[in-house]
From TrEMBL:
SUPFAM superfamilies: C-type lectin-like (SSF56436). Residues 181-219 form a coiled coil. Residues 309-433 form the C-type lectin domain. Keywords: Coiled coil, Disulfide bond. The keyword Disulfide bond applies. This is C-type lectin domain-containing protein. The keyword Ion transport does not apply. It comes from the Eukaryota. It holds the Pfam family Lectin_C. It comes from Pomacea canaliculata.
Amino acid sequence: MYLPTRRTLVTTAVSWTAEPPTSVVLTKGIENMRNTTTDARVQLETETNHKLWNFQLQMDSNVSKVMESCNVSQQQLLTTVSDKLLQLETKLNKGLVDLHNASFTADRRLEANINESVEHLQKVQLQLDANISKAVQSYNELNERLMETSKELQLNQTTFSYQVENIVTRLDKDGGIELKLTRASDQVKDLQQRMQKISEAADEHQSQLNKQITELEAEGKTGLSGLQQITSDLRTTLTSNVQTLTNLTSKTELRVSELEKKLSTIDNRLKRLETSTKISLEAIRSNMSAIFRATPGVQCLLKTGYVWYLETCFKLSTREENYTTAKAKCEADGAHLYDVKSPILDEERIRFAIKQAGLPLYINIWVGGNDLEVESVHRWSDGTPLSPLYKLWGGGEPDNLGGVQDCVVINVTPVQFVLLDERCSASYRYLCQYDL
Ligand SMILES: [Ca+2]
């Protein structure tokens, strides 16, 4: 590398004693216009970068909000559905417990009624048996008394006939027949009265017996009627309980069916929501990708430290490194050391980067060229040849000074923009280039 001094950079001043020539005025004018255009372009690029950066931030924020809103809506819906399911399940369980309790109570009541009825029937049966037994006994007693009375009557008739014969015989024997007839007549009347009383007593016994039999029959009918009534009541209660159970079962089945329908509806809504959310997110991603593809400057600005300027993405390092480290750090970004293939645009870009970084105007910066593989055969980072006749080489460069200069820097001063070969172990800032 040829090392110029500050003095050699000073252009010899020319003093004009007369009006400057027109060509000089034009040159100055052109120079001023060029400076103005460059400043305007720099300002425009800066503003564009700023707007693109803000746009990116806004898009990120919007996407985050949409994602957050979708997640919150989905979570709320899931929570609501879960709560409703729990409530419905609780109600259903309570209904089943009530149904079970009602069924159990009805069974117990039915069993108690049956037991009570059986006991009552047994008592009625016992009472009926006792009454029948009594009636039979009374009947037998009455029958016996009737037979005795009949025997007594026959005996009396026999005795009476005998006595009448005796009286007639005695009347025939010793007179006084009228008196004896009168006595006999009284005795006959007395006998007739006694027979009348016995007959009345027999009628009364018969009447009582008939009455008892009628009562027994009525009581038997009443017991049977009561039994029929109890059986009818039990049947009614049983039918009512069965109807209640049937109704409860029917209602429960209806509720379960309604719940299943609601669940199905909720499930369908969730699926539709999920589908629409996926479609929306996919559309957002697609739009974002389209925006990114359409604006490489946005992709460039997403890389830390890189700037998009004059259709190129690049970064000037903040630290000085040797060539090997500088090359590795660019490659770690997915980039490479800057290949200075477009002298005019590259000079504008590199001066812009130096100005943005606030660096001094005399500086060496590592770029992509080197002849590490074959001495004096320089190549750019992408492997394309860097001819020794390339117009950006400084005067006498590359000179491989000391036989150790295999890496290339761009040397920038207020009046110079040239390539020099340098020792690779030297430390300089470096320029990375990210291809889009
Ligand atoms: Ca060399």
